[in-house]
Design brief:
Chain A contains seven helices and five strands, in the order ββαββαβααααα. With 157 residues, chain A is of the alpha+beta class. Chain A is globular and about 45 Å long. In chain B, α1 packs across α11, α3 packs parallel to α5 and α5 packs across α6. The chains are: A alpha+beta (157), B alpha+beta (724).
Chain lengths: 157, 724
């Protein structure tokens, strides 16, 4: 049995220790907002936070995540009210939407570290692949979310 | 017997050899049987098949096509709502049921999504459906008041009796309206009176896409569901020889191994991870068949033979090229090449199927749920009336999952071996890249003649290309010419007085498929690059050279969008040192597009794309923000292909396997993108694909300006660039 804390809830899962975190989230815990895209840490559709750090869950053995705080898109906000989620709607970012939860998780980790990221910061932090080509709107939405966060009570992402 | 004949019918019409028809017509007997099986559980009053109105005034508009990122889940309801005169804030979109569609004699027309057709092909019947429903609601209110219907007006979900100012809401009269006959020819609004169409609308599907709530097919979760991983024969056309299932018998979760003709499947409990781990260690022997010697080089030589053939089927003939070339002052000849490309939808191919003795349920990312139902019925060997295809948003489509849904066939076959247990088949990304339906390879030789004044007088084209449609749509082959494959050339708007074009079909064992924009991906690269060559040979500005060739009424819309984009880009304005412009124009899918790209090449050969200005005239616009988004997306999809896109073949199989060696553009590489919308009205053009056409040539033309090197094959990663 492996103990996991996902979105603030403790889970005990009976899986092999090398099972990748992505599949534990999707198939064992039913958290399907985290997506399978490549299985080799290249596309970022599976991005979640491990103790606040963005990780690609498709290559991460679940044993490494044990005892750490895991946040998935389902835990980013309870009602879609995270500044990034609001900005994503304001800019009408998603097209097919499949990669967007991973994009938002990458961007959310960036905003925690750098509440006012530059374009270069975004380029370095958001390396996820979007096949529909929503990058221009993603960049704009991240800047909008950063502005909103900055103007509200200095909240950090 | 009836069942058998239907099955044979479906076999013939829908599913031979893995290729599907876009349209599936059911025999009357099937419809009758389906009607008997129907259980009408509708809770909302259905005013017409497209429009349901609840007593609380909620309006549900059904969508028959599928959302795969292009915005039609919102744009299609806008067409209905405009004529319905309803309160848009109370509208919800809902997928039309596939089984209901079949039960009711294809009442939703078509469930196909492809060819940039959703809006343009359904706009008339959807606007008519909205107008009919409005008339029915108005009539119902008039009857309630016992007044002439001509004294009543519907607006914003309210019907007003004008003389007395009495009002009834749509919800209050919907049940009565639903009992009225549906008017066949209700008058439609003048486009000048539209209030919804042409205005940006927020998309219905976006809020759930930012929270992870949207359930794509791959997110289907059913009690007791098992997972399936697949390995398909690496060489196309090969088959499974043997598999040693014993070797994985003890692995975690493994339920069983299912051998298919050209693939093997491992079914496992608990997680797809278990199935995938097991199949990776499963000893498999393949019979690679007769194509294991084929390589990209041998395919290129096969294409060259097509160029060398003395004669090939003619796709266009105008004037007399021989005398034009005989009197030419300058003759230009060039060969161009484009490689195979894979779609790489972000959601890999997958399908969840549940087979029971009563019915078969399927969840799949398919672009045509009607064809999916037919394939499911045929594969499961059940009447189509016992099939339900659950419609879901697609994690990308781009043409991959319209004609070819072999993953549905596979999942249904597995499910049939375990009745009552839902099975979720997922292809790994490697399976997805290596078992695609590829944008075909193409080699083209073009020649042109210029007279002493630098005016073009003749143009010849010999295409040596693989045909996408020769097997799946033989009616699109006319006298040896794939009529889709020759578009861009055979329908070019340029006024060469003499033209001769030929098409040599060169089909290989690599399975082709419609890739976003189909022929309008590679052919515009060939044509618009070559036109650029002619402009430079004539010593003329490439924009002005095109203008001169785009005279006459047939070319007026191409010319207008070219002008609009050139103006927006500031074609004649000075650029920073080292930055150069390229331009291209193309009509496709009933729309007109042009692009100007600014690019530079550094001293070390590094290419930077600084700015893309891309414009479209698609006639009328439903949701302008969706049009913008499609063009922005086309820039990425098109430039990714131009920069990196290449599927190569070695020993009969695809060499690339995942995003590390089939590279995609990322945010750091994004140029500034400016979308110019110039809708001129009067027609409905497509939007999802046309934006692709002018990108590669505009970029390569900019690179010629920057380096003096003419790029005649893609992708650009294979070329060493140096500033001029």
């Amino acid at each position: 049995m492996i103990s996991l804390t996902v979105n603030g809830t403790e889970h005990s899962v009976d899986v092999s220790s090398d099972m990748r975190l992505l599949w534990v989230l999707r198939d064992i815990l039913g958290l399907t907002g985290t997506k399978f895209g490549c299985g080799m840490s290249v596309c970022g559709a599976c991005t979640v936070h491990l103790d606040g750090e963005p990780v690609r869950s498709c290559v991460m053995p679940v044993s490494i995540a044990a005892g750490k705080k895991i946040t998935t898109i389902e835990g980013l906000s309870t009602d879609g009210s995270h500044p990034l989620q609001r900005a994503w709607i304001a800019h009408q970012v998603p097209q097919c939407g499949y990669c967007q939860t991973g994009m938002i998780m990458s961007a959310a980790a960036l905003l925690k570290k750098k509440p006012q990221p530059t374009d270069t910061d975004i380029n370095e932090a958001v390396t996820n692949i979007c096949r529909c080509g929503t990058y221009t709107r993603i960049r704009a939405a991240i800047h909008t979310a950063a502005e909103k966060s900055g103007s509200n009570n200095g909240m950090k992402g | 017997m009836q069942q058998m004949s239907r099955r044979l019918f479906l076999l013939r019409s829908a599913a031979v050899g893995g290729g599907l028809l876009l349209e599936v017509t059911l025999p009357k007997s099937a419809v009758a049987e389906a009607e008997q099986a129907s259980t009408q559980a509708e809770t909302s009053p259905e005013v017409t098949a497209w429009v349901l109105i609840r007593p609380d005034d909620t309006i549900i508009i059904r969508v028959a096509r599928v959302e795969m990122g292009q915005g039609n889940f919102t744009g299609l309801p806008m067409l209905v709502a405009e004529e319905l005169a309803c309160d848009w804030s109370k509208v919800q979109a809902e997928y039309a049921s596939t089984s209901e569609h079949l039960r009711r004699n294809r009442i939703f027309r078509t469930m196909l999504t492809g060819g940039s057709r959703s809006i343009r092909d359904s706009q008339e019947y959807l606007r008519t459906a909205g107008a009919a429903a409005r008339l029915m609601l108005t009539t119902a209110a008039a009857r309630r008041w016992s007044v002439p219907v001509t004294e009543c007006v519907a607006e914003n979900s309210l019907i007003t009796h004008t003389p007395t100012q009495r009002q009834l809401s749509f919800g209050a009269v919907a049940a009565e309206a639903a009992t009225l006959d549906i008017p066949e020819d209700p008058p439609l609004k003048d486009p000048a009176a539209w209030t919804l169409l042409g205005q940006p609308a927020e998309r219905f599907d976006i809020p759930d896409k930012v929270t992870g709530k949207t359930a794509f097919a791959i997110d289907t979760r059913l009690p007791g569901m098992v997972y399936a991983a697949i390995a398909q024969c690496p060489v196309f056309g090969g088959s499974l020889k043997s598999v040693d299932a014993e070797k994985i018998a003890g692995m975690r979760g493994v339920v069983k191994v299912v051998p298919l003709e050209d693939a093997v499947v491992v079914v496992a409990k608990e997680s797809w991870w278990n199935a995938q781990q097991a199949i990776r260690t499963l000893p498999i022997e393949w019979d690679f068949g007769s194509h294991a010697h084929v390589s990209s080089d041998s395919i290129l030589e096969f294409l060259r033979e097509g160029i060398r053939l003395e004669k090939a089927p003619v796709s266009r003939q105008e004037g007399d090229i021989d005398s034009a070339f005989a009197s030419a002052a300058t003759t230009i000849e060039a060969d161009y090449y484009a490689p195979y490309l894979e779609h790489a939808t972000m959601e890999p191919q997958n399908c969840t199927a549940l087979y029971t003795d009563k019915r078969v349920d399927v969840w799949a990312p398919a672009q045509n749920s009607e064809a999916t139902a037919a394939v499911t019925a045929e594969t499961a060997d059940v009447p189509v009336s016992r099939v339900e295809v659950h419609k879901v948003h697609l994690g990308g489509g781009f043409g991959r999952r319209g004609l070819h849904i072999e993953f549905v066939r596979q999942a249904v076959r597995i499910a049939k071996t375990m009745p009552g247990t839902p099975v979720q088949l997922i292809w790994s990304r490697e399976e997805d890249i290596q078992h695609g339906r590829y944008r075909p390879v193409a080699l083209v030789r073009m020649r042109a003649a210029l007279n002493a004044a630098g005016e073009p007088t003749a143009w010849t084209v010999r295409q040596a290309e693989q045909s996408i449609f020769s097997e799946v749509r033989p009616h699109l082959i006319r006298d040896g010419v794939d009529i889709v494959g020759v578009r861009t050339f055979a329908d070019a708007p340029y006024a060469f007085p003499n033209m001769h074009m030929e098409y040599a079909m060169r089909n290989t064992h690599v399975p082709p498929g419609p890739w976003r924009a189909v022929a309008h991906t590679h052919n515009p690269f060939f044509r618009e690059s070559f036109i650029d060559e002619l402009a430079h040979a004539a010593g003329q500005d490439p924009y002005q050279f095109r203008r001169a060739l785009l005279q006459g009424s047939q070319a007026s819309k191409d010319l207008a969008i070219l002008d609009a984009v050139a103006e927006a880009a500031g074609w004649n304005s000075p650029l920073p040192e080292g930055v150069y412009r390229g331009i291209a124009v193309q009509d496709s899918y009933g729309s007109y597009t042009a692009a100007v790209i600014e690019a530079s090449v550094s001293g070390t050969g590094e290419l930077t794309i600084h700015r893309v200005v891309v414009g479209i005239d698609c006639g009328y616009v439903a949701n302008p923000d969706s049009v913008r988004a499609q063009l922005e997306g086309s820039v990425v999809y098109g430039l990714t292909a131009a920069l990196y896109g290449e599927i190569t073949i070695k020993e009969g199989r695809v060499e690339q396997s995942n995003f590390h060696d089939y590279r995609m553009m990322r945010i750091a590489e994004m140029p500034t993108v400016e979308v110019i919308l110039k809708p001129t009205g009067g027609f409905w053009g497509g939007v999802g694909e046309p934006g692709m056409a002018p990108l590669a040539p505009a970029l390569c033309n900019a690179l010629f300006a920057a380096t003096g090197k003419r790029i005649r094959s893609l992708p650009l990663k294979n070329h060493a660039l140096r500033p001029a």
